[in-house]
Amino acid sequence: MAPVLDINDSSLGLWENGALRLSSPGYALLDKNQYRFGELARNQARLQPRQINHRYWAQLDLEPLTPAFGPGRHSADIVHAHLMEIYEQGGRPEQLVIAAPGSLQHEQLALLLGIADSCPFTVTGLVDRAVAATTVQPVAAYNWHVEVQLNQALLTGMRLENGQLINDKTVPIPGSGWLALQEALARAIADAFIRQTRFDPRRAAQTEQALYNAIPDILSRLQQASETNVDIDGRQARVEREALAEACNSHYQRIARTVMAEQAAVFLSPVLAQLPAIENTLQGARSHSEDAVFQGVARNTDAMLGDDGGVHFIVSLPADADTGTHDGASSTPESLPEPAKSSAAAAKPVAEKTAPTRCQIVFDNGKIALHPGSGPALRLNGAPLQDEAGVATLRDGDLLEDASGKAWRLVAAEGHEDHGK
To answer: Please, which residues bridge with residue 154 across strands?
Structure first.
């Protein structure tokens, strides 16, 4: 099995043989006209804030950087440089499976594949990371996967249909990402220092950076204790779990308003699960293990490949409501345009192709027509495919399903006419 690159910009993880080989947060540090990434860059965020970019994954595109940021022309160039560093530090893998967040738009996924195509590794699969992680556990009729990226929280709603866990929708919550949570935690910890020692660690860049660097360890210790002692620059203060929970509560409530509004199972990413008292707000939520995305991919490696051997964005994987067993049922790929080169314009439209033994999709004078063939009846957008002429006109967003439950969604490629709208 190829190594798995799990993309969440709060920390990209390269997994191989069930072990985390490399963790690289989505920070870029501009150092003498070259980029440095990961932990090194993150540990300079408070020391050299003007030399840091932490939005290039979320803003992946070909727009000129404003203001300029080193040698890169656009965020795609920085993403390429980050991927190359991961490749070099990760042992130069020949192949990768990419687990991507649903927050990446269709054109961004195409661009990501184009960037990867210019790297010395081959992408053999592309899967929604929320779906992959959640299939590891038994699921309900409806489910929410909750994760925090650097600049937003991301909620992924997934429904269970015919043994398939399907990405139903993604709901971003800007301003409640890991950066905002860190700010709230740092403020509460600094307040404890001020009250107890009259020392504010935020007053100087060095001690402020030390404060932020200490947060993961503080959260880890508070998993098993109601308070802990924190040492910064030779000064010590007692930090209480309850105070940190109160600092984060407004962010918890923003998440809860969506995921607790209906009967659904809630799954938390490992970063969220370690936040103090989040279980009091998101009652009944289950946490994913750190390797959940890798395990979800490992269980469904065969389903990652398209019928034509190409790379499709997998938005559905086998799941089970009772035992969590995986029966190898077919996956649901969302067709992608051809990979866009990071130095080129938009992606080309999807090439004409024939769905397996069921129908033929034909591009004709700006319209996309579907000619039913032999075999069981097809369904278009959940309804039986019926047309007096035996031909249906497809539009952007249409969902075509065969009798086995396999489905294809029509997605317009960037830079071309959106036929049928």
So the answer is: 147, 172
Q: What gap in Å lies between CA 98 and CA 146, rounded to an integer?
A: 19
What confidence tens digit (pLDDT) does each residue in 100-156 have?
A: 999 999 999 999 999 999 999 999 999 999 999 999 999 999 999 999 999 999 999
Place of tokens 């040698």: 71
Residue 348 scores a pLDDT above 90: no
Q: Which string of b and e fits 19-33 if b means at least 16 CB within 10 Å?
A: eebbebbbbbbbeee
- Region 328-350: what's the mean pLDDT? 45
Model pTM? Answer: 0.78
Residue 245, amino acid? A
- Reference 143, options 267, 256, 261; nearest CA is 267
Q: Can you read off the two tokens belonging to residue 312?
A: 């499709």
* Cα–Cα distance measured from residue 288 to residue 329, given in angstroms and rounded to the nearest whole number: 23
- For residue range 388-415, list pLDDT tens digits in order: 445 677 776 677 776 555 566 665 544 4
How buried is residue 290: exposed, middle or buried, by Cβ count under 10 Å (0-12/13-18/19+)?
Answer: middle
Q: How far is CA 22 from CA 86, 90, 127, 224, 271, in A?
A: 8, 6, 19, 27, 17
- Please report the sign of the dihedral spanned by the C-alpha atoms of residue 147, residue 98, residue 217, residue 273: positive
C-beta contacts of 188-191 below 8 A and 24+ residues apart? 188/239, 188/243, 188/244, 188/246, 188/247, 189/214, 189/215, 189/218, 189/230, 189/237, 189/239, 189/244, 191/243
How would DSSP label each residue in 369-399?
A: EEEE-SSSPPEETTEE---TTS-EEE-TT-E
Greatest CA separation for the chain: 81
